[in-house]
Structures are given as C-alpha cells and as structure tokens.
Amino acid sequence: MRYSRTSRISEEIKKVVSDIIRNELKDPRIPKLLSVTHVETTGDLRFTNVYICTFDNQKDNIETIEALNKAKGFIRKELGKHLKLRYIPEPIFKTDNSIKQGIYMNDLIQKVNKNTSVEQEIEEND
C-alpha cells in the first residue's frame, strides 16, 4: 500500500507531538496518561488535527484541550525544529473518545457473555 505525502507527514507529526507532550510540557492540567490517537493534516500542510485521548478520570477533557491550545505556539515551534518543511502546520487539538467507547463496548460484551453462560448453566441444571 502506498502512502501519500500528507499521511507520512501526519504520522511524523503524531510521533513528535506525542514526545513533546510527554517530555517537554509541564502544565499540571495535562494528565500523565494521555495519548495522541490520530493526526490528520490538510493537503496544503497549513493545519493539522491532533486527536487526544486521556485515560485519567479525574482530569476533564475540556481542561486538557484548553491547556494544549494554550501551548500551541510552543508545540508548533518544536515541530519546526524536528520537521524540515516549508510550512509548519498549526495544530488543532480535539478529543477522541474512541478508546473509552471501546472499553465500554468490551465491558458490555463481557456482561452479555457472562449472562448467557449463567443462563446456559441454569438450563442445564433444570
């Protein structure tokens, strides 16, 4: 499968932004358990959507996005140091709840499987 230039750049931005958030940002509003799940860069390389998922239940996603948007200039500057591009895309941070939804769906499936196995045992005992 052949990757387009923008998808390769998006993957590189994902790695660099993840590293910047983990090692260089010192904002207490950003939780330690944070993941950059997906990055989409526009074709003209002016903007990039960075999807963030937090695993810390005590931290609010809106507060985390606000903190990342406040650090947007620093993150863009650091991206410029790591990427050799004519234009460094402006990051736009968005929440991604796909991992939480996946965990919720997995819990539902396990409950259904547990209930069907209990019902089968009851039927076998009757």
Describe this protein's structure:
The protein is an alpha+beta fold. The chain folds into 2 domains: 5-95, 2-Layer Sandwich (GMP Synthetase, Chain A, domain 3), CATH 3.30.300.20; 98-126. It is 54% helix and 17% strand. It has a 3-stranded mixed β-sheet with strand order 1-2-3, sandwiched between helices. Strand 1 (34-41) and strand 2 (47-54) form a beta hairpin. Helix 1 packs across helix 3 (72-82). The radius of gyration is 20 Å and the shape is elongated. It starts with a helix and ends with a helix.
What is the element layout, followed by pairings?
Layout: H1 5-23, E1 34-41, E2 47-54, H2 61-70, H3 72-82, E3 90-95, H4 98-125
Parallel strand pairs: 2-3
Antiparallel strand pairs: 1-2
